[in-house]
Write a structure and sequence with these properties.
about 800 residues
Amino acid sequence: MRGLLTDFTHAARGLRHRPGYSAIIVLTLALGLGVNTVAFSVVNALLLKPFHVANADKIGWVFIGTAGDPLALSSANDIDAIRRGAGTLDQVAGGGRLAVGYDSGNGAEQAWAQVASANFFEIVPPPMRRGRTFSAADLAATGAVPIVVSEQFWQRKLGAAADLSTLRVAFDRTPVVVVGVVADGYQAPIGVFEPDVWFPVERVAALGLDAARQSTDSAWLGLLARPKPGATKEAIEADLGPIAKDNATRAGRTADDVRVRFVWLREGHPELRGPLVWVAGGAMAGVGVVLLIACFNVAGLVLSRSHERQRELSVRAAMGAGRWRLARHLLAENLLLALLAGAAAVGVSAFSGQILQGLSLPAPIPQRLHFAIDGIHIAVSFALVLIAAVVPALVPIWRLSRQDPIATLRLGPSSVVGTRGQARAGRWFVAAQVAGSTAFLVMALLVVQSFRASASADLGFATDDVAVLDIDPAQHTYTASTARTLAADLLTRVGQDQRVATVALASRAPFAVGYPDLRRLSTDGRDCQAVDCPTATTYAVGPEYFDALRIPIRDGRVFRDDVGDRDAVVISEAAALALWPNQRAIGQTFREGQDRRSRVVVGVAGDLTLMAFGASPRPVLYRPMEEADFGKMFAVIARGRATEPTQILRDALHALDRRVPPASLQTLNDRKALPMWPVTVAAAFFTTCGVLACTMVAVGLFGLTYYTVRRRLREFGVRLAIGATPGDLGRLVMTDALRLLAPGLAVGVLLAFGLTRLIGAQLPGIQGLSPAIFVAAIAMQIGVTLLASWSPARRAGRVDPLTVLRE
């Protein structure tokens, strides 16, 4: 132990005398370790510790599905049946996500709720800031519905009243009583979703929801269970199988296809874990390459400095220091530098939430990733520090094992066999750094090109000055008929505003979240249930929809909003080509969907791409809106006159019914952020890695060139003495730096070519490889190299030949 302490003391003393060298290495390793620790913070939050609840290793999900849908949701009847008959479960609870409206005093606003059974909080008890959770006793009482709210909702929306009994809030026109406030950060085992409020599922009927959610046989709840001690996954599934089949029979479903699956919470949600593992693995591999580049960088610097220290190390060896003692001294230096860099990296990762906040999913649902410096994070960070300390020292230690200390003292370091090998190893390290950074640069430029193409693509409709209001009156006591009246009043009120050019209705607006409405189309009377038929994405729209989004009508006309045109439709050019490739589509008839309703084509509209780059436009069918379309969520789309009419839509809705909240109110450009999110994150990731890799290459080339110039001072003095100019020496240093760059650049371009062929086809807006991307990456690398070697080149040109030769 004393020997190790001595090594660290000597290492600290030596590094203090070389502040520039130490700062370069700490900076390089901090960049490499920082991006790795931040990336691991995300992996830790998503995969390793996705659920911040007590006893998460003793809780699991229960899925009652079918062979085709094994992760299906369950009904309230399923919960009751399992509670009565399960012998392997101690408790089972249900919960579901729900959008609700509450009266904010300035009109209704939307909040996101977790509907949970009374014993939900017994399985996953939350930390309480105020009050308590609701219980079975609360549910027996009549009157106001007991609820629990999140701390953020309590503070921002409810005024943070100290006495909860004074809070008087109405959700969906239903009076509620707030019995508790959950401490900030509680998510329960529901992923990154962080509810504003929790409702008891037993009182959900009081909210006046749609009939599907009020039915005890409707499958919309997830099941959470706490098994009895010793119960295995297999025993639980065998125990629940007969119960689930018997309950399916009672509900009139086929029991033979019922499948029960139990998944421990610690395993992660099976629907998300698989894709996340692949994404996380790819991201960690990418940032691992950045750390490897940093290690190669440091290895080159250590090799360069070890040339200066050969006489020192030889003196130590001649005085009795063994090779292991010398190697241990080098390791102590590297470990000390890596620990300093690791401390900085862990400090950066502690602020991962703020760093990555701009890359969160742009969805209206409240969500948050919880980043924590826990034991796993510290262990991984320390492992990375050890890698950063040991890898750069391997080659110097190997060179040290081959060094003859007597020859070094007798003849000087320049004559020692291995100096040429050190230079060759340094060049290999530089080549590896340049190859990795070039590949990152090309990928970053490729993804940025994809991002720009996505942002500027012609979608087939206008997005500027367009706002979309999504509302769901059926969730707030409206019938389909009264919701249709509300929609007509909205159209009238918004359309009368002089700042609005056009306003329209639609079942869903572009970039809507959820699965599209795909319908099979039969042009020759075939039964589409028996044979394959063309499919089209279907929108129910008002006649003004095409003008509001400026979708051009290529042929025919738009259907009218009257009974005579109720079977008329407009199809896209792609649909016309798929259904009648050699005929005019106007006047053609076909049958639509499972009810085989007859339709007649009155117009052909331009195609929509919806950012599906590189693929043929998909067929689209526009049909008139009917009363049934108002029994669920629909959209009001308004195009302003040189302004975005977001506030106009909000004011109009509040003026008509202050109790109906907007489910979503965004500009169309803001809604575009959600489908662009994957390419946005990819662009940020590769750009960050590319910039860090180039920065480390610049630092590494600067350090290597600087120490090379120091070693060649005698040579430069002789060159100046025999007539060379400072400019000649500067050009010589820069030329040598470019020679160091060339091999790595060639390998990096080949590596990038393979990666772009593999990944480029998956990126929107990329149609073939652009030589300009490779030229730009090469030019950036050359620029970085010249910048890194500029200061050492100036130093070489300022050498005083008399002083150098005298020394």
